[in-house]
UniProtKB/TrEMBL annotation:
It comes from the Bacteria. Pfam families: adh_short. This is SDR family NAD(P)-dependent oxidoreductase. The lineage of its organism: Bacteria, Bacillati, Bacillota, Bacilli, Bacillales. Transmembrane segments: none annotated. InterPro entries: NAD(P)-bd_dom_sf (IPR036291), SDR_fam (IPR002347).
């Protein structure tokens, strides 16, 4: 299968996993709406240099059709306008929704409990990682229901409901998992599949910069964190999303929380460098 007749929305595709997922959907031929706050004319509070225009161009170069749209997904009116535009431009079709809005890294204060953590930063994390996902799903799902098909993927961190080391971070990521499960129950009669998906130790642009390395010499990052040796590029989760989108029997995963390493065994894909990292096994052997 390919995705030449499929329309996707990757909410939060300016960089990292979002960009890679959009590119991989494009690689299979999909039309991908790439959203985010940073454009060539305006930078978001993240103060990063990547833009949605660049992401869309990479989608098109990969073989699909990339369409950049500047959207702040915490703003209901902007999301409503976005879905109205998709409905108009694509004759009411939307097949794939990837809820990847995050931006919570600079908001997370590790080592602080719920009372010590900056309250406004913690609430903003919920605004971006939870409320924005709800708003986007609210306006996207009607298009899927109308066409009686669809795939919704909530991007999270971790496969369980265990505590993740910070009250606000944990609340956001566990919420993503439960949203996927709740929508799976809500929408199963409409042939819509809803799942949560987690990467392992993600070797994103920001993480490479944090460790002071590039993709060419990334293994030197183990001098900062020994577990970096088991990291994966954003294209690993991109491969996971592409294979899920092309799987005619994807509904068998409805309501589940999946991982890049688990799906690499199901679909036998590899990372951009030819490796097949398995964070689940590594975590059990070297971290847990």
């Amino acid at each position: 299968m390919d995705l030449k007749n499929q329309v996707a929305l990757v909410a939060g595709a300016t960089r990292g996993a979002g960009r890679a997922m959009a590119i991989k959907l494009g690689e299979a031929g999909a039309t991908v709406y790439v959203t985010g706050r940073t454009t060539r004319a305006q930078q978001s509070p993240m103060s990063r240099h990547e833009t949605i225009e660049e992401s869309a161009e990479l989608v098109t170069e990969a073989g699909g059709t990339g369409i950049p749209v500047q959207v702040d997904h915490t703003d209901e009116s902007q999301v409503k306008d976005l879905l109205h535009r998709i409905e108009k431009e694509q004759n009411g079709q939307l097949d794939i929704l990837i809820n990847d809005i995050w931006g919570g890294d600079p908001l997370t204060e590790w080592g602080k409990d719920v009372a010590e953590h900056d309250l406004q930063k913690g609430l903003q994390m919920q605004e971006q990682a939870v409320r924005a996902h709800i708003i986007t799903s609210h306006y996207a799902v009607p298009l899927m229901k109308k066409n009686k098909r669809g795939l919704i993927i909530e991007i999270t961190d971790g496969t369980d409901y265990n505590y993740r080391g910070n009250f606000y971070y944990s609340l956001a990521k566990v919420s993503n998992i439960h949203m996927a499960k709740a929508m799976a129950e809500d929408l199963k009669e409409h042939s819509i599949t809803s799942i949560a998906l987690t990467p392992g130790f993600l070797r994103s642009e920001a993480m490479l910069e944090y460790f002071g390395v590039t993709e060419e010499n990334w293994k030197e990052g183990v001098q900062v964190d020994q577990h970096f040796i088991a990291s994966e590029t954003p294209f690993y989760i991109g491969e996971a999303v592409k294979h899920l989108a092309m799987d005619q029997d994807v509904h068998r995963f409805n309501g589940r929380t999946l991982s890049t390493w688990e799906l690499s065994e199901v679909y036998d894909y590899k990372d951009a460098d030819g490796a097949q990292p398995h964070w689940g096994n590594y975590f059990k052997e070297h971290v847990e």
